[in-house]
Specification:
By secondary structure, this protein is of the alpha/beta class. The protein folds into four domains: about 50 residues; about 100 residues, Immunoglobulin-like, CATH 2.60.40; about 200 residues, von Willebrand factor, type A domain (Rossmann fold, 3-Layer(aba) Sandwich), CATH 3.40.50; about 40 residues, no CATH class. The strands form five sheets. Strands 16-15-14-17-18-19 form a six-stranded mixed sheet, with helices on both faces. A four-stranded antiparallel sheet has the order 5-4-8-9. A three-stranded antiparallel sheet has the order 1-3-6, with no helix packed on it. α4 links the parallel β14 and β15. The N and C termini lie far apart (about 80 Å).
């Protein structure tokens, strides 16, 4: 376009020079004609960008790795002039989110609608927008752009895989003592009765007491006699093993985990948390993401949402060793609790802390992520040796390697019990 404009500028100058040199009006008329053509082309490109409105609608601002983000866009012309050429350029940070398009010619007051369906391959918070609207003139002299800076965000939760028989639910780790704590939902443990209050469910009514006292009486429940579970996640940057990757060859709908030990650890933590919270178990979460993030044990979907949000926004930038994390937070783990430790660190320090937890009466399950399986040279000892050390210390272990099916890797077939039972 610059070359064409320069050519027109040169012709205008030559036309006026020819007119001054010869005195002939033909050259002046030619110069004025080319100048008017240039001005009209600029006005055309300018008017093409005016009177245009773009609306973008996203059905959900939260999605998950392995799912699809659906976005619907509408470009509306409010001008009585036709729009012959418009181009929309998108500046979203979501990988492979291709909103940019060349809009076909629009009639006066016309509209063009299109949709974008992007598979979510990476967790995190991503920006949608802004947009740049570009247009030009039919002669190709000018290309103007108009910035539409409005943005929104979408949060992509980490992947969750179904776990059929993870250790504590399979009877390997039994329940703890009764909690003696009132529950606001129905459990198998009735603790007493009280008068009916507005909002109580009818399935809590104790009919025999209601008939005897001639007023509505409801049952009270306490928490199930099951141990609290804690997920402790190692996001220390020094223990991270990763290699470059490209998401270009991933098929739509396929669950993709990058060759990164931290991403495997986060997906495992999300899957274990979902597994127990769906079963109404009380579960807490501890990690440095890189700031200290401790979620006290709770039940249900609200707790799962908190954990998934923390994992989606987690950054592997901290320098806190896993052994120090366990030492700082071990006061949260009471006797009889179940601690699920997830790490790719093959060092001795956190193994010693795990064995201290076992001696304190905490039931420990370790999920080891083999750093050697990621194809990166590392001085760490083999995962098999680390697993043997944990088993000797009374820790139940799982071993996950790069490329494993997480559902199978975290099943009873891959479970290794301690060499000497610790409970």
């Amino acid at each position: 376009m610059a070359r064409r404009r320069n050519a027109i500028h040169s012709l205008i100058i030559l036309a006026f020079i020819g007119g001054l040199a010869t005195g002939r009006t033909f050259f002046f008329n030619l110069g004025y004609l080319l100048l008017i053509l240039l001005i009209l082309a600029w006005l055309w490109a300018r008017l093409n960008l005016s009177g245009v409105r773009i609306a973008r609608n996203t059905r959900a601002r939260r999605t998950q790795v392995g799912k699809t983000l659906d976005e619907y866009l509408t470009l509306q012309s409010r001008s009585p002039l036709p729009k012959l050429w418009l181009e929309v350029r998108d500046h979203s940070s979501l990988p492979d989110h291709r909103v940019g398009i060349v809009v076909p010619p629009l009639a006066p007051y016309g509209a063009f609608r299109w949709s974008v369906h992007t598979p979510c391959l990476l967790r995190g918070e991503f920006q949608l927008g802004g947009l740049t609207l570009a247009s030009g003139d039919p002669f190709g002299f000018f290309q103007l752009a108009r910035e539409l800076p409005a943005t929104s965000s979408v949060l992509v939760y980490p992947a969750i895989v179904p776990l059929a028989d993870f250790a504590p639910e399979g009877g390997v780790l039994s329940g703890g003592e009764a909690q003696r704590q009132r529950a606001y939902f129905v459990t198998t443990n009735a603790a007493g009765i009280r008068d009916y209050a507005p909002g109580d469910s009818f399935n809590r009514i104790h009919w025999r007491s209601t008939a005897r006292r001639d007023r509505l009486i409801v049952k009270e429940f306490e928490l199930d006699p099951l141990s609290e579970l804690w997920v402790l996640l190692d996001l220390n940057a020094a223990a991270r093993v990763a290699r470059p990757f490209d998401t270009g060859g991933v098929a739509p709908g396929e669950l993709y985990l990058p060759p990164d030990s931290a991403e495997y650890a986060i997906a495992i933590a999300a899957s274990i948390s979902a597994h127990f919270l769906i079963k109404e178990r009380s579960l807490g979460f501890i990690a440095h993401t890189p700031r200290r993030n401790v979620l006290q044990p709770d039940r249900g979907g609200r707790q799962l949402t908190r954990i998934l949000e923390a994992l989606a926004l987690a950054k592997v930038e901290g320098d806190l060793p896993f052994a120090q994390l366990i030492a700082l937070e071990n006061h949260q783990l009471t006797r009889g609790a179940i601690a699920i430790l997830i790490s790719a660190d093959m060092g001795d320090d956190w193994l010693a802390e795990a064995q201290l937890l076992v001696r304190r009466g905490v039931r420990v399950v370790a999920v080891l992520i083999d750093p050697h399986s990621f194809g990166v040279a590392t001085p760490a000892r083999s995962a098999s040796e680390t697993r043997a050390c944990l088993e000797i210390g009374g820790v139940t272990t799982y071993l996950v390697r790069y490329g494993d099916n997480l559902s199978a890797a975290l099943s009873r077939a891959n479970l290794r019990l301690p060499s000497r039972p610790s409970w």
